[in-house]
């Protein structure tokens, strides 16, 4: 009987070990990332500072990159002074540079966002301090500067919008009526409350979300600003099915238009109507700094918002370290569906989000971690790109960098499912074989 009891115990232990091993194997499979390869890494620039801020896939299978350049040598063509200019580069489907253009005047002009228009040209947005060269008007310290371009980068029209302060355009979309919606930060204090098409009620202060609706010729149809008495900065916008707009960014305010502040800075999402009226607003985050940088529509009628968080409470259930990329899915009414944190034990952030061809999402940003969701770090700060499924599960990630600071500000899936990411690099080691100046425009492709 003792021997039978012994064998029975051994059998139970064996079954338990098998179950445990199966469970561990299942968890390992769930955490296993898809292996992706780097097709190429390029740095472009001159002896001073360059950066890529936005990338868009083009209808011919290639892509266009917008950023800014300070140099007058190296890879930069036809630039006559060392002030910053918008820098636009067009690549074909074989990653060959087809043409490049610089835009601006004799002062500080920096490109931040690019779209391809329905007719095949481009629209570019950022800010300008110039009042010469390509820029015909200036109203203050910085103005929104928008240019409509043809297919070869020639200017069709250009417009400046702003007041006496630092007004910076961050995002542009083409609207369903073939016009444009641009958004960025308005220095409300310096504007003296100007910037609304309608009579303003409570006087705001600091920086506010500023939305400007343009027709197809760049003429202003209306403008409205939203926020409170502290710092409210919008970084991205999408148009909704009902022709309204969702604008996302960060807010440090807890008054005027902001009713549910969670902490220091929050993801702040607003819905405005087709004519710019505030329909609703909501905040996501915790007690620390949380900033939303991008928004896209999902294939099921909802929206995905990407940014970063330093919180570990309230809406943020998990923080892997100092800061994480923080992704949320919400309904068209702003109700939270799910939330996910990605990163390691150091500082990790998301700066853009775009749709992949299979219904997932591509996020670009930067990482200082080499653990958790981040498998490798080459130095101080690496450019970081990762893909999540439609349910928010991590599928793959890549870091690119050297011993200095390397950042990714945009990434897009091309027609062949490869991903082109852009940003800036100060390294000349690790993955980065050449540095041409202080900081270079960085391009890398993931297959």
TrEMBL record:
InterPro entries: Quinoprotein_ADH-like_sf. It comes from the Bacteria. This is Bulb-type lectin domain-containing protein. It comes from Jejuia pallidilutea. The lineage of its organism: Bacteria, Pseudomonadati, Bacteroidota, Flavobacteriia, Flavobacteriales.
